[in-house]
Description:
Layout: H1 15-21, H2 23-29, H3 35-43, H4 53-76, H5 80-98, H6 100-106, H7 115-124, H8 135-141, H9 165-171, H10 176-191, H11 195-205, H12 221-248, H13 251-272, H14 286-291, H15 303-306, H16 314-319, H17 328-339, H18 353-373
Helix pairs in contact: 1-18, 4-5, 4-7, 4-13, 5-13, 6-8, 9-13, 10-11, 10-12
InterPro entries: FA_desaturase_dom, Fatty_acid_desaturase
Region (Disordered): 1-20
Domain Fatty acid desaturase: 80-341
Amino acid sequence: MNATQPASHSTAYSGQEAQTATDAAIDRTRLPDDKVLLRAAVDLTRDLHTAKPGIYWPDMLGSALIGYAALAGAILTDKTWLAILLGLVAVQALYRALLFIHEISHMHRDALPGFRSVWNLLVGIPMLTPSFMYEDGHTIHHSRTKYGTPEDPEYLPLALMKPWSLPVFLLIALLAPPALMIRFGILAPLGLIFPAIRKMNWERFSTLAINPDYRRRPPAEAKRRWYILLETGASIWALALFASIPLLGWRPLLVALAVFSVVAVLNQLRTLVAHLWENQGEPMTVTAQYLDSVNVPPPGIAAAMWAPVGLRFHALHHLLPSMPYHSLGEAHRRLSAHLGADSTYLQANYTGMIPLVGRIAASTMRARNTDKSA
Protein backbone atom coordinates (compact mmCIF):
# COMPACT_ATOMS: atom_id res chain seq x y z
CA MET A 1 0.00 0.00 0.00
CA ASN A 2 2.97 2.28 -0.51
CA ALA A 3 2.02 5.35 -2.50
CA THR A 4 5.33 6.87 -3.51
CA GLN A 5 9.02 6.52 -2.91
CA PRO A 6 10.73 9.92 -2.77
CA ALA A 7 14.49 10.10 -2.83
CA SER A 8 14.33 11.81 0.54
CA HIS A 9 11.82 13.43 2.82
CA SER A 10 12.43 16.83 1.22
CA THR A 11 12.66 16.01 -2.49
CA ALA A 12 9.57 18.03 -3.35
CA TYR A 13 11.25 21.29 -2.29
CA SER A 14 14.37 23.10 -3.38
CA GLY A 15 15.81 26.62 -3.11
CA GLN A 16 14.61 29.69 -1.30
CA GLU A 17 10.93 29.26 -2.21
CA ALA A 18 10.96 25.77 -0.79
CA GLN A 19 12.30 27.18 2.45
CA THR A 20 9.48 29.74 2.56
CA ALA A 21 6.83 27.12 1.80
CA THR A 22 7.97 24.85 4.63
CA ASP A 23 8.61 27.41 7.36
CA ALA A 24 5.48 26.40 9.25
CA ALA A 25 6.44 22.73 9.21
CA ILE A 26 9.97 23.48 10.38
CA ASP A 27 8.69 25.74 13.18
CA ARG A 28 6.36 22.99 14.32
CA THR A 29 9.19 20.47 14.30
CA ARG A 30 11.24 22.68 16.60
CA LEU A 31 8.31 23.52 18.85
CA PRO A 32 9.11 22.89 22.54
CA ASP A 33 6.78 20.75 24.58
CA ASP A 34 3.76 22.47 26.11
CA LYS A 35 4.17 21.17 29.66
CA VAL A 36 0.79 22.53 30.74
CA LEU A 37 -0.90 20.50 28.02
CA LEU A 38 1.06 17.33 28.74
CA ARG A 39 0.43 17.56 32.48
CA ALA A 40 -3.28 18.20 32.02
CA ALA A 41 -3.56 15.26 29.63
CA VAL A 42 -2.23 12.99 32.36
CA ASP A 43 -3.90 14.52 35.42
CA LEU A 44 -7.40 14.94 34.02
CA THR A 45 -7.74 11.45 32.55
CA ARG A 46 -6.38 9.09 35.21
CA ASP A 47 -9.77 7.39 35.61
CA LEU A 48 -10.35 6.82 31.88
CA HIS A 49 -7.79 4.15 31.04
CA THR A 50 -9.73 0.97 31.76
CA ALA A 51 -11.01 -0.90 28.72
CA LYS A 52 -14.66 -1.85 29.24
CA PRO A 53 -15.57 -5.36 28.03
CA GLY A 54 -19.24 -4.36 27.85
CA ILE A 55 -18.34 -1.90 25.10
CA TYR A 56 -15.52 -3.66 23.25
CA TRP A 57 -17.12 -7.08 22.80
CA PRO A 58 -20.60 -6.06 21.56
CA ASP A 59 -19.13 -3.36 19.31
CA MET A 60 -16.62 -5.64 17.63
CA LEU A 61 -18.87 -8.73 17.42
CA GLY A 62 -21.89 -6.74 16.27
CA SER A 63 -19.89 -4.94 13.57
CA ALA A 64 -18.47 -8.22 12.27
CA LEU A 65 -21.87 -9.96 12.32
CA ILE A 66 -23.62 -7.16 10.47
CA GLY A 67 -20.75 -6.86 8.00
CA TYR A 68 -20.62 -10.53 7.08
CA ALA A 69 -24.42 -10.85 6.90
CA ALA A 70 -24.58 -7.88 4.52
CA LEU A 71 -21.71 -9.28 2.48
CA ALA A 72 -23.46 -12.64 2.19
CA GLY A 73 -26.62 -10.87 1.07
CA ALA A 74 -24.71 -8.89 -1.55
CA ILE A 75 -23.25 -12.12 -2.92
CA LEU A 76 -26.52 -14.04 -2.97
CA THR A 77 -28.98 -11.45 -4.30
CA ASP A 78 -29.66 -11.18 -8.00
CA LYS A 79 -30.82 -7.56 -7.72
CA THR A 80 -28.08 -5.09 -8.56
CA TRP A 81 -29.47 -2.23 -6.46
CA LEU A 82 -29.82 -4.48 -3.43
CA ALA A 83 -26.31 -5.87 -3.90
CA ILE A 84 -24.93 -2.32 -3.95
CA LEU A 85 -26.92 -1.32 -0.86
CA LEU A 86 -25.87 -4.40 1.08
CA GLY A 87 -22.31 -3.92 -0.13
CA LEU A 88 -22.25 -0.41 1.34
CA VAL A 89 -23.58 -1.72 4.66
CA ALA A 90 -20.88 -4.41 4.61
CA VAL A 91 -18.20 -1.79 3.91
CA GLN A 92 -19.16 0.37 6.88
CA ALA A 93 -19.59 -2.51 9.32
CA LEU A 94 -16.47 -4.43 8.31
CA TYR A 95 -14.46 -1.21 8.26
CA ARG A 96 -15.44 -0.61 11.87
CA ALA A 97 -14.68 -4.21 12.82
CA LEU A 98 -11.30 -4.06 11.07
CA LEU A 99 -10.23 -0.88 12.86
CA PHE A 100 -10.20 -2.69 16.18
CA ILE A 101 -6.72 -3.74 15.03
CA HIS A 102 -5.67 -0.28 16.17
CA GLU A 103 -7.03 -0.88 19.66
CA ILE A 104 -5.36 -4.29 19.80
CA SER A 105 -1.98 -2.75 18.99
CA HIS A 106 -2.23 -0.62 22.16
CA MET A 107 -3.98 -3.13 24.38
CA HIS A 108 -2.14 -4.65 27.34
CA ARG A 109 -2.02 -8.41 27.00
CA ASP A 110 -4.01 -8.88 30.23
CA ALA A 111 -6.78 -6.47 29.25
CA LEU A 112 -9.90 -8.05 27.75
CA PRO A 113 -8.78 -11.71 27.84
CA GLY A 114 -9.44 -13.48 24.57
CA PHE A 115 -10.31 -10.33 22.61
CA ARG A 116 -7.18 -10.37 20.46
CA SER A 117 -7.61 -14.06 19.56
CA VAL A 118 -11.32 -13.79 18.78
CA TRP A 119 -10.78 -10.67 16.69
CA ASN A 120 -8.11 -12.44 14.66
CA LEU A 121 -10.37 -15.45 14.08
CA LEU A 122 -13.43 -13.41 13.11
CA VAL A 123 -11.89 -10.38 11.39
CA GLY A 124 -8.11 -10.38 11.06
CA ILE A 125 -7.70 -13.72 9.30
CA PRO A 126 -10.88 -13.58 7.13
CA MET A 127 -9.87 -10.09 5.95
CA LEU A 128 -6.24 -11.23 5.55
CA THR A 129 -5.06 -8.57 7.99
CA PRO A 130 -3.98 -10.44 11.14
CA SER A 131 -2.97 -8.27 14.04
CA PHE A 132 0.78 -8.86 13.64
CA MET A 133 0.66 -6.72 10.51
CA TYR A 134 -0.02 -3.66 12.66
CA GLU A 135 1.20 -4.23 16.19
CA ASP A 136 4.99 -3.75 16.01
CA GLY A 137 5.01 -1.10 13.28
CA HIS A 138 2.42 1.00 15.03
CA THR A 139 4.51 0.97 18.19
CA ILE A 140 7.33 2.62 16.21
CA HIS A 141 4.89 5.23 14.93
CA HIS A 142 4.22 6.24 18.54
CA SER A 143 7.88 6.40 19.50
CA ARG A 144 8.88 9.88 20.65
CA THR A 145 12.19 9.69 18.78
CA LYS A 146 11.01 7.92 15.60
CA TYR A 147 7.65 9.49 14.76
CA GLY A 148 7.85 11.24 11.42
CA THR A 149 11.40 10.07 10.73
CA PRO A 150 12.52 7.69 7.96
CA GLU A 151 12.28 4.86 10.54
CA ASP A 152 8.53 5.39 10.98
CA PRO A 153 6.63 2.84 8.85
CA GLU A 154 3.43 4.89 9.04
CA TYR A 155 4.72 8.28 7.95
CA LEU A 156 5.45 10.02 4.66
CA PRO A 157 5.72 13.81 4.18
CA LEU A 158 2.70 13.73 1.88
CA ALA A 159 2.06 17.47 2.22
CA LEU A 160 5.55 18.18 0.87
CA MET A 161 5.41 15.80 -2.09
CA LYS A 162 4.11 16.12 -5.65
CA PRO A 163 0.34 16.58 -6.34
CA TRP A 164 0.09 13.22 -8.08
CA SER A 165 1.22 11.53 -4.86
CA LEU A 166 -2.20 11.98 -3.25
CA PRO A 167 -4.38 10.19 -5.85
CA VAL A 168 -1.77 7.46 -6.16
CA PHE A 169 -1.72 7.12 -2.37
CA LEU A 170 -5.50 6.57 -2.39
CA LEU A 171 -5.91 4.47 -5.52
CA ILE A 172 -3.17 2.01 -4.66
CA ALA A 173 -5.33 0.89 -1.76
CA LEU A 174 -7.72 -0.66 -4.29
CA LEU A 175 -5.07 -3.30 -4.92
CA ALA A 176 -4.65 -4.20 -1.26
CA PRO A 177 -7.11 -7.16 -1.08
CA PRO A 178 -5.75 -9.06 -4.11
CA ALA A 179 -2.21 -8.19 -2.99
CA LEU A 180 -2.94 -9.73 0.42
CA MET A 181 -4.26 -12.88 -1.27
CA ILE A 182 -0.97 -13.17 -3.14
CA ARG A 183 1.05 -12.40 0.00
CA PHE A 184 -0.64 -15.09 2.12
CA GLY A 185 -1.81 -17.57 -0.50
CA ILE A 186 1.28 -17.67 -2.73
CA LEU A 187 4.31 -15.99 -1.17
CA ALA A 188 3.85 -17.44 2.32
CA PRO A 189 3.72 -21.08 1.10
CA LEU A 190 6.66 -20.43 -1.22
CA GLY A 191 8.54 -19.00 1.74
CA LEU A 192 8.49 -22.43 3.36
CA ILE A 193 10.67 -23.62 0.47
CA PHE A 194 12.70 -20.54 -0.38
CA PRO A 195 14.28 -18.62 2.52
CA ALA A 196 14.83 -15.53 0.36
CA ILE A 197 11.09 -15.25 -0.31
CA ARG A 198 10.32 -15.80 3.36
CA LYS A 199 12.74 -13.02 4.32
CA MET A 200 11.31 -10.63 1.71
CA ASN A 201 7.76 -11.46 2.74
CA TRP A 202 8.47 -10.63 6.36
CA GLU A 203 10.56 -7.51 5.83
CA ARG A 204 8.45 -5.85 3.14
CA PHE A 205 4.95 -7.34 3.17
CA SER A 206 4.16 -8.01 6.83
CA THR A 207 3.49 -4.46 8.03
CA LEU A 208 0.68 -2.07 7.15
CA ALA A 209 3.20 0.58 6.20
CA ILE A 210 3.05 3.62 3.92
CA ASN A 211 6.79 4.29 4.09
CA PRO A 212 8.28 2.30 1.16
CA ASP A 213 11.76 2.33 2.72
CA TYR A 214 10.67 0.57 5.91
CA ARG A 215 12.02 -2.94 6.48
CA ARG A 216 10.67 -4.97 9.37
CA ARG A 217 13.08 -6.61 11.77
CA PRO A 218 12.73 -10.26 12.83
CA PRO A 219 10.06 -10.72 15.52
CA ALA A 220 10.93 -11.00 19.18
CA GLU A 221 11.23 -14.62 20.28
CA ALA A 222 8.28 -14.27 22.65
CA LYS A 223 6.00 -13.32 19.74
CA ARG A 224 7.34 -15.67 17.08
CA ARG A 225 4.99 -18.59 17.76
CA TRP A 226 1.93 -16.34 17.87
CA TYR A 227 2.89 -14.69 14.59
CA ILE A 228 3.45 -18.08 12.94
CA LEU A 229 -0.02 -19.21 14.04
CA LEU A 230 -1.62 -16.07 12.63
CA GLU A 231 0.28 -16.30 9.35
CA THR A 232 -0.60 -19.97 8.99
CA GLY A 233 -4.28 -19.24 9.55
CA ALA A 234 -4.26 -16.40 7.03
CA SER A 235 -2.42 -18.57 4.48
CA ILE A 236 -4.92 -21.40 4.84
CA TRP A 237 -7.78 -18.95 4.37
CA ALA A 238 -6.17 -17.36 1.29
CA LEU A 239 -5.66 -20.79 -0.25
CA ALA A 240 -9.30 -21.61 0.49
CA LEU A 241 -10.35 -18.43 -1.33
CA PHE A 242 -8.36 -19.49 -4.40
CA ALA A 243 -9.86 -22.99 -4.18
CA SER A 244 -13.39 -21.56 -3.99
CA ILE A 245 -13.24 -20.27 -7.57
CA PRO A 246 -13.76 -23.62 -9.37
CA LEU A 247 -16.31 -24.66 -6.72
CA LEU A 248 -18.42 -21.50 -6.39
CA GLY A 249 -17.45 -19.47 -9.41
CA TRP A 250 -15.98 -15.99 -9.49
CA ARG A 251 -18.91 -13.97 -8.14
CA PRO A 252 -18.49 -14.60 -4.38
CA LEU A 253 -14.79 -13.77 -4.45
CA LEU A 254 -15.18 -10.73 -6.72
CA VAL A 255 -17.97 -9.25 -4.59
CA ALA A 256 -15.93 -9.81 -1.43
CA LEU A 257 -12.83 -8.28 -3.01
CA ALA A 258 -14.86 -5.28 -4.15
CA VAL A 259 -16.17 -4.71 -0.61
CA PHE A 260 -12.71 -5.13 0.93
CA SER A 261 -11.20 -2.80 -1.68
CA VAL A 262 -13.65 -0.05 -0.75
CA VAL A 263 -12.83 -0.67 2.92
CA ALA A 264 -9.14 -0.29 2.08
CA VAL A 265 -9.70 2.97 0.17
CA LEU A 266 -11.84 4.36 2.99
CA ASN A 267 -9.11 3.51 5.47
CA GLN A 268 -6.49 5.07 3.20
CA LEU A 269 -8.56 8.25 2.96
CA ARG A 270 -8.81 8.32 6.76
CA THR A 271 -5.05 7.83 6.94
CA LEU A 272 -4.53 10.73 4.54
CA VAL A 273 -6.21 13.13 6.98
CA ALA A 274 -4.97 11.57 10.22
CA HIS A 275 -1.88 13.83 10.14
CA LEU A 276 -0.77 17.01 8.43
CA TRP A 277 2.29 15.16 7.05
CA GLU A 278 4.52 18.22 7.24
CA ASN A 279 7.57 16.75 8.93
CA GLN A 280 10.69 16.30 6.80
CA GLY A 281 12.33 13.54 8.81
CA GLU A 282 13.51 15.26 11.98
CA PRO A 283 12.58 13.95 15.45
CA MET A 284 9.72 15.92 16.97
CA THR A 285 8.64 16.78 20.50
CA VAL A 286 5.42 15.25 21.81
CA THR A 287 3.64 18.58 21.36
CA ALA A 288 4.92 18.84 17.78
CA GLN A 289 3.71 15.32 17.08
CA TYR A 290 0.33 16.26 18.54
CA LEU A 291 0.02 19.34 16.31
CA ASP A 292 1.03 17.29 13.25
CA SER A 293 -1.95 15.05 14.08
CA VAL A 294 -5.67 15.68 13.71
CA ASN A 295 -8.81 15.71 15.84
CA VAL A 296 -12.22 16.02 14.17
CA PRO A 297 -14.43 16.25 17.26
CA PRO A 298 -18.22 16.53 17.52
CA PRO A 299 -20.71 18.03 16.82
CA GLY A 300 -20.14 16.79 13.26
CA ILE A 301 -21.27 13.18 12.81
CA ALA A 302 -19.60 12.29 9.51
CA ALA A 303 -16.23 11.69 11.20
CA ALA A 304 -17.80 8.92 13.27
CA MET A 305 -18.36 7.09 9.96
CA TRP A 306 -15.00 7.59 8.27
CA ALA A 307 -12.92 7.59 11.48
CA PRO A 308 -14.72 5.14 13.80
CA VAL A 309 -13.46 3.41 16.93
CA GLY A 310 -12.15 6.66 18.39
CA LEU A 311 -9.96 7.61 15.42
CA ARG A 312 -11.68 10.96 15.04
CA PHE A 313 -9.56 11.90 18.09
CA HIS A 314 -6.30 10.91 16.47
CA ALA A 315 -4.25 13.82 17.83
CA LEU A 316 -5.53 13.14 21.35
CA HIS A 317 -4.63 9.50 20.83
CA HIS A 318 -1.03 10.57 20.21
CA LEU A 319 -1.05 12.29 23.59
CA LEU A 320 -2.64 9.30 25.34
CA PRO A 321 -1.97 6.25 23.15
CA SER A 322 -3.06 3.66 25.71
CA MET A 323 -6.48 5.21 26.35
CA PRO A 324 -9.41 3.00 25.20
CA TYR A 325 -11.36 4.38 22.28
CA HIS A 326 -14.56 4.71 24.27
CA SER A 327 -12.88 7.17 26.69
CA LEU A 328 -11.47 9.59 24.14
CA GLY A 329 -14.63 11.66 23.83
CA GLU A 330 -14.77 12.30 27.57
CA ALA A 331 -11.04 13.06 27.67
CA HIS A 332 -11.52 15.57 24.88
CA ARG A 333 -14.35 17.30 26.74
CA ARG A 334 -12.32 17.57 29.93
CA LEU A 335 -9.20 18.94 28.24
CA SER A 336 -11.15 21.41 26.12
CA ALA A 337 -12.99 22.80 29.14
CA HIS A 338 -9.90 22.94 31.35
CA LEU A 339 -7.41 24.41 28.88
CA GLY A 340 -9.67 26.90 27.15
CA ALA A 341 -10.08 28.33 23.67
CA ASP A 342 -6.55 29.73 23.36
CA SER A 343 -4.77 26.50 24.32
CA THR A 344 -2.38 24.43 22.26
CA TYR A 345 -4.83 21.57 22.66
CA LEU A 346 -7.53 23.09 20.45
CA GLN A 347 -5.03 23.88 17.68
CA ALA A 348 -5.23 20.23 16.53
CA ASN A 349 -9.02 20.40 16.02
CA TYR A 350 -10.44 20.50 12.48
CA THR A 351 -13.97 20.61 11.14
CA GLY A 352 -13.92 17.72 8.71
CA MET A 353 -12.24 15.67 6.01
CA ILE A 354 -12.72 18.06 3.08
CA PRO A 355 -10.83 21.01 4.62
CA LEU A 356 -8.01 18.67 5.60
CA VAL A 357 -7.71 17.18 2.12
CA GLY A 358 -7.77 20.71 0.73
CA ARG A 359 -4.97 21.81 3.05
CA ILE A 360 -2.72 18.89 2.08
CA ALA A 361 -3.54 19.27 -1.63
CA ALA A 362 -2.73 22.99 -1.50
CA SER A 363 0.62 22.19 0.06
CA THR A 364 1.45 19.73 -2.74
CA MET A 365 0.51 22.38 -5.31
CA ARG A 366 3.02 24.76 -3.74
CA ALA A 367 5.58 22.02 -4.16
CA ARG A 368 4.72 21.73 -7.86
CA ASN A 369 4.95 25.48 -8.38
CA THR A 370 8.30 25.53 -6.62
CA ASP A 371 9.64 22.86 -8.96
CA LYS A 372 8.46 24.79 -12.00
CA SER A 373 10.15 27.98 -10.88
CA ALA A 374 13.38 26.30 -9.82
